[in-house]
Amino acid sequence: MPLVKFAGPTDPRLLSTRIGEELVSDSLVRRYEPDGSDGLPGSEATFNLCSFWYVEALTQAGRTAEGQYVFEKMLTYANYVGLFAEEIARAGEALGNFPQAFTHLALISAASNLDRALSGESLPP
To answer: Which of 10, 14, 52, 84 lies at 20 to 30 Å from 64 by C-alpha?
Structure first.
């Protein structure tokens, strides 16, 4: 929500969500918690776009160290030339569309905001 200016990054309603507890596994973020009602077989992998959005949200909320940890962990999932697929399966393999342009846009945005925060610059409103 902060990325689209629907709520501020430190809005108490946003900070009280359970996204970190319910959708994040080892710093990787799922789009939703599959409970079988989505009509798709199997389980949902983590979604790289959401993981980079999570980095940006943590950074904007002033949780820069956490954002940096997640960002650096995400970089380990790129392939040998630094490209990302759409999703990461439980065993760490790339799934879905490859390369995924939206993931790379989110990576650039997260990197830019994280760099600003780490260098002491103010983040964009």
So the answer is: 84
- The pTM (predicted TM-score) of the whole model is 0.80
DSSP 8-state class, residue 77: T
CA triple 29-59-16, angle to 5 deg:
65
67 secondary structure, DSSP code: H
Distance of CA 33 to the CA centre of its chain: 15
Q: What is the model's pLDDT at position 60?
A: 87
User: Residue 124: helix, strand or coil by DSSP?
Assistant: coil
**Mean pLDDT taken over the chain:** 80
Q: From CA 17, how far away is CA 34, in angstroms rounded? A: 18
Q: What's the whole-number mean pLDDT along residues 51-63?
A: 89
Of the candidates 59, 58, 51, the residue with the CA atom closest to the CA atom of residue 123: 59
Delimit the domains of the chain by residue range: 2-33+59-118
Q: Is pLDDT above 90 for 115?
A: yes
In the numeric block, the tokens 């973020």 are attached to 29
How far from chain centre, in Å, is Cα 67?
9
